[in-house]
Amino acid sequence: MGKELRHAVAFTALTMLLFGGAYHGVLWVIGRVAFPAQAEGSVIRRADGTVVGSALVAQRFVERGYVHSRPSAVEYDAASTGPSNNGSANPEQIALERKRLQAVMAEDDVKAAQVPSELITASGSGIDPDLPLAGVDVQVSRIAAARHVPAARIRSLIAAHADAPTWGFLGCARVNVLELNLALNEAFGPPPTSH
Amino acid sequence: MSTQYLAVTFTIVLAVATSVPLGRYIYDVFSGQHTWLDPIFRPIERLVLRASGVDAAVAQDWKRYSASLLLSNVVMWLIGFAILELQGHLPLNPDHIGGMEPTQAFNTISSFVTNTNLQHYAGETSLSYFSQMFVITFLQFVTAATGVAACVAVIRGLAGDRLTALGNFYVDATRAAVRLFLPLALVVGVFLLWQGAPMTFKSALHATTVEGAPQTIARGVVAAEVAIKQLGTNGGGYFNANSAHPFENPTPLTNLVETWAILVIPMAMVWALGDFTRRRTLAVVVFTVMLAIYVPMVAIAVGQEAHGSPAIAAMGVSQTAGSMEGKEVRFGSGLSALWAVSTTVTSNGSVNAAQDSLTPLTGLMAMIGMWLNNIFGGVGVGFLNMMIVIIVTVFIAGMMIGRTPEFLGKKVEGREMKLASLALLWHPLAILIGTAVACAVWTSTAHPDAALGWLHNHGPHGFSEMLYEFSSSAANNGSGFEGLGNNTPFWNISTGLVMLLSRYIPIVAPLALAGSLAAKPAAPETAGSLRADTPTFGFTLWAVIIILGLLMFLPVAVLGPLAEYLALH
C-alpha cells in the first residue's frame, strides 16, 4: 500500500507539473510569438493608448447614432458572462421579448416583420459581438438621421464590414457591432449626443 | 437556413472520417507499436513513468488495476480540494480571488476528478489562474486519460484468452494523457489562439467603452483549457458562458474544430475496439448503431431549433436563423443544436448556447443523450457503458434463440450479468431518485421560491431543470439547465455524491466483468455461435439501447419536456 500511495502521489505531482505547468507554458510562448494580439484578448485601443474594448466582446450602445448590440442578460458584463436561461414558454421571457420588440419598433420606426429575432432575444454569452445583417439594416435610418449622413453611405460602410459565413456555409452572415461603430466614427466623426 | 443543414452534415462527416485513422493511432499507442509522434512524446511518457517509480513491465489484474485507478483519483481529489480552498494565498491570482466555499469546493473537485465538469461556480469570478491551470486543466487531461485507460484495459480483457492481467494503470493513463490528448490539445490550442482565444497571465482588461462607460473584460489562459475541455469530454468552461463566450469560441471555424473535438476521440475508441479484437466488422456494427441513434437526434434538434419560438412567431417577428434566445449570431441555431446533442451523447457537457433556453424537444434530445450515455459516450467510459448494453443484448438474444449467450467467444454467465445489471441500473436510479428527492424537498418547503429559490422557470420547465441536473451528474456530463440556482449545500452535496458514484461504479464493474471474461478461454466461433458482428445483432442492439435505456425515463420525459412542448403548441 505504501508503494502504491507513493506511485499515486508522484504521478499526480508530475502530471500536474506537465499539464498544469509546461503545457500552458508552451501555448503561452506560441501565443506571445505568433499571435500576440489574440493572446491578449484582441484589445482595441484609442490613438492615446486607452482601451476601448475587445473586438470579440459586445458593449452597450444606447445613443441614436450607433448600431445597438444584441440584448444581453448580463448587461454586457464581460467579467460575469452568461445567458438568461429563460425557457421559450416562460411568461417573463415572452414579456421581455414583447418589450424589446416595442422598443425597437418605436426607436427605428419599423414594423415587427422587419425586426429579426436576434434583436429581441438575449445571446448565450451576454457579450455576443455580432448582429445579422437584417439586425443592422433596421437601424440604418435612425443612425443616418442622428448623424445627418445619407443612409446609402452608411449602408456601403456596413457592406464593407459584413462577414460572410466561413466557406459560404459555416455559421451565419454577420457584422461586428463595435468595429462597425468605430468605423462609423472614423468616417463621419462621433455622433451628436442625443442624451 | 439550408446552409445550416450543410454545416451540420459537414461537421459530422468530418468527425467520422477523421475518427478512423485516429482509432488506428490509439490502437498503435496502446499496443506498443511505433508511431510517427514517438520521437517527441515517448520521452515524456518515459519521464513521467520513471519519475513516478512505476515499473512499466508489471501488469495488474482487474483488482489491482482498479485500486491504482481509485487511489490516484483520491490523491488528486485531496490535492485539488486543498488548492481550491487555498487559492487566495497561492500565486497567479491577479484578480485577487479568494478560496471557495467548502460545499462548492466539494462539488467542484468531485466534478472535475470524475471528468464531469458540472460547474456550480462561474470561472471568471471564482477561480484564480493557478486553479484554472493546476486543478481544472490538469484534471481535464488526467481524468480523460483515466477513462481511456479503463476502456483499453477492458478491451484487452475481452480480446484476451485466459488472461490474468489487464495491463498497468499508470502506463495506460500516461500513454493516453501524453500521447493521445497532449498532441491533439497542442494543435487545437494553437488553432484557437490563432482565431482569437486569449492566452495571457495578465489581469482582466479595464476598458472605457465607445460611449464612455467602464467595462471589465475577464481573460486568462483560455486557449489551453478550451482545447482539452473539448477533447477530453470534460466540458468545464473557462468562463461561465462556456463555449458561447467569444473568447472560448470566437469564430465559426473554432466552432467547427471544437465540435469536431467533442466527437472525434469517442468515435475513434470504437475503431480502436475493432483493431484490438481483430473484428473490424464488429466495430462497424457498433459504430453504425451509434450513428443510427445520434443522427436522428441531431436531425430532430436542428429541425426544432430552426422552427424558432412559437411566442416570437406570434409577434410577427422573423426567425430566419431559428430560435435565438441564448444563442450566438456567429453560430446560428443549427450549429448550436448540433452541439447540444453532441455534447450530451458524449458526456462532454460544454455548451455553445444556453441549454435552458433550447426549445422543449431539443432539451429532451439533450436529456436522452445523457440517459443513454453510451452513444459514442465519454472518452473511454462511453464505450464501457456500451459494452454493458452489448453484454445484456447478447444475453437477451441468447435467451430468445435458445443458445448459450457468448461475446467474442466467451460465455456470458451469472457473474457477468450481475455486474452488467449493477452498472446498468445505477444510472437511472441515481437520476430518478435524485430528482424525486429534489421534488420532495421543493414541494414540502413552505414558499419554496423565497425559501429555496432554485427554480428559474416554473411548471414543466422547472421540473426539467432539476431532472437535467441529476441526469448531467449521473452521466458525468456537466452541462446544465443553468437557470437552476444550484450553488446551495443541497445541490452541491447531492450532485457531488451522484457524480462520484456514477463515475466509479460504471468503471469498476466493467473492469471486474472484463477480468472475469479475460480469464475464460475464448472458444472458436462456429456456425452455432451467436455472432455480434452481424446486422441482425446490430438491429437487436439498437432496439435494446432504445427500449432499455429510455423506457425507464418515459414518465419523467412526459412530465418535463413533453408537457412543455404540448403547452407551447
Helix/strand layout:
The complex is a heterodimer of chains A (195) and B (569).
Chain A: H1 2-34, H2 36-39, E1 43-45, E2 51-54, H3 91-108, E3 130-131, H4 133-137, H5 140-147, H6 151-161, E4 162-163, E5 174-176, H7 177-188
Chain B: H1 2-30, H2 38-51, H3 62-86, H4 102-113, H5 123-126, H6 129-159, H7 169-195, E1 205-208, E2 214-217, H8 222-231, H9 252-276, H10 280-307, H11 310-314, H12 332-345, H13 360-372, H14 381-401, E3 406-407, E4 410-411, H15 414-444, H16 448-451, H17 460-474, H18 489-518, H19 535-550, H20 554-568
Antiparallel strand pairs in B: 1-2, 3-4
Helix pairs in contact in B: 1-7, 1-9, 1-12, 2-7, 3-4, 3-6, 3-18, 4-18, 6-7, 6-8, 6-18, 7-8, 7-9, 8-9, 9-10, 9-12, 10-12, 10-13, 10-19, 12-13, 13-17, 13-20, 14-15, 14-19, 15-17, 15-18, 17-18, 17-20
Describe this structure in words.
By secondary structure, chain A is mainly alpha-helical. Chain A contains seven helices and five strands; from the N terminus they run ααββαβαααββα. Helices cover 47% and strands 7% of the residues of chain A. Chain A is extended, with a radius of gyration of 22 Å. Chain B has 569 residues and is mainly α. Chain B has a domain of 190 residues. Chains A and B meet through helix 1, strand 2, helix 3, strand 3 and helix 7 of A and helix 1, helix 2, helix 3, helix 6 and helix 7 of B.
Task: Write a compact overview of the structure shown.
The complex is a heterodimer of chains A (195) and B (569). Chain A has 195 residues and is mainly alpha-helical.
